[in-house]
Design a protein that fits this description.
49% of the residues lie in helices and 16% in strands. With 404 residues, it is an alpha+beta fold. It has a seven-stranded mixed sheet, with no helix packed on it. A two-stranded antiparallel sheet has the order 8-9.
Length: 404
């Protein structure tokens, strides 16, 4: 054997030893876990958790259990190795869970929140005993106790009753199952809508809970509404019977006037902001309108309204103005050059009554407004009421009778 072959054999052996060593280490422990940090956990019962058991964070692998030792105080000390970079809040709790039906146990971390501070090397992971699943022997004992409490005769009677109730109802049960499947499909498709309804319902419930005596007030309102609906039962039945026909006619009307309806909606969008911006004016108008109606009621005398119309409109002063779009609410600079020239029976409002900046008065007012309208009436025309006309007519007839 020449030296070249010997050298190749030695090099192959050296590479094989190194590769096998690294392979054994890689198989024996995960590289990421090996570079991680250590965490301990103290439990009263290991519940089958020992070296090699996975540690997960909300179901995602983050490490493994490296050791399990008795701590000498009646408990078990678990040594965990966590992948470097994993953020586990210090107040997070861990729970032993099973991943498969075969009982594959793992230690799952269930954080209360994702906020820090976080566990570091040597930190302790909390594993509360009252949050762990029941031991198998305790579970079997509980099942045995529950089964012994059942009366066999009652079970036999219940089975017979169920069999009697289901006998001959196979097609109906099949229809119920099919309807349930359809309903489940609809609920799945409308899940976002139901989620929104539930969210809005929670907001409403919280608002009711914040009010004083929310339950009694809500129940009282619900009772009143229910009573009103019960008293209007005939009307509701009539509406339910005739609403589909009316809705069909409305649909035909809307289809025939689709373009006009679109234009009407567009105009509504334009007009609505105008009404909204003038909310205080509408409120004041309604208030003053109520007062006016009350004052109007005071003009009734002897069962008749007593009105007198006085036509005394005189001249007014107007200014030129530049019209602009109704939605244009941009500020405009006041024109201080305009003023109303003094005149007889001319109302001096506007520039002569409004204060000027810096107490200028009418200084700089160079453009007078235009006087329009007839002169004020010297002898106003009084429109008589019906009562006055009747009295005048009676007086005239009495005069004619006396003369005759």
């Amino acid at each position: 054997m020449n030296r070249h072959v010997v050298a190749q054999a030695l090099l192959f052996a050296l590479i094989s030893v190194v590769a096998i060593g690294y392979g054994i280490r890689y198989i024996g422990e995960d590289a990421d876990v090996a570079r991680g940090f250590g965490v301990v956990a103290h439990v009263e019962d290991a519940r089958g958790v020992g070296p090699g058991v996975r540690v997960t964070y909300r179901g995602v692998d983050i490490g493994e259990v490296r050791e399990a030792q008795l701590d000498g105080a009646g408990g078990v000390r678990l040594g965990l190795r966590i992948v470097d970079g994993t953020l586990i809040p210090v107040n997070a709790h861990a729970r032993v869970v099973t991943s498969t039906a075969l009982g594959d146990a793992r230690l799952d971390v269930r954080p209360i929140s994702d906020a820090g501070p976080y566990l570091g090397d040597g930190g302790e992971l909390l594993v509360p005993g009252d949050e762990q699943p029941a031991a198998l022997e305790d579970l079997i004992a509980s099942i045995d106790t529950s089964l012994r409490a059942l009366n066999p005769e009652s079970l036999e009677s219940l089975g017979g009753s169920v069999a009697t109730a289901l006998e001959g109802n196979g097609p109906r049960l099949g229809a119920i199952l099919e309807d349930t499947a359809r309903l489940t499909t609809v609920l799945g498709e409308q899940a976002p809508t139901f989620r929104g309804l539930v969210g809005d319902g929670l907001v409403t419930v919280r608002a009711l809970a914040a009010r004083p005596d929310p339950v009694t007030g809500s129940v009282s309102v619900a009772r009143d509404v229910t009573g009103q609906l019960a008293r209007r039962q005939d009307t509701l039945v009539y509406l339910l019977d005739h609403s589909p026909e009316a809705m069909d006619r409305a649909q035909v009307l809307l289809d025939a006037n689709r373009e006009n309806a679109a234009g009407l909606l567009g105009n509504t969008l334009v007009v609505t902001p105008v009404f909204r911006e003038r909310g205080p004016a509408w409120e004041d108008g309604l208030t003053q309108g109520e007062r006016g109606l009350r004052a109007l009621a005071g003009t009734v005398r002897g069962g008749r309204a007593d009105f007198q119309l006085v036509a005394t409109q005189g001249p007014v002063c107007v200014y030129p103005y530049e019209p602009r779009d109704i939605l244009d609410d941009s500020p405009r600079e006041t024109d201080l050059r305009l003023y109303c020239p003094p005149g007889e029976d001319l109302g001096q409002r506007g520039s002569r009554a409004a204060p000027r900046p810096n107490d200028e008065g009418l200084v700089g007012a160079t453009e007078p407004g235009t006087r329009i309208g007839p002169d004020a009436a010297v002898d106003p025309l009084l429109v008589p009421t019906g009562k006055e006309i009747a009295a005048y007519w009676a007086t005239m007839m009495e005069g004619l009778r006396d003369d005759g």
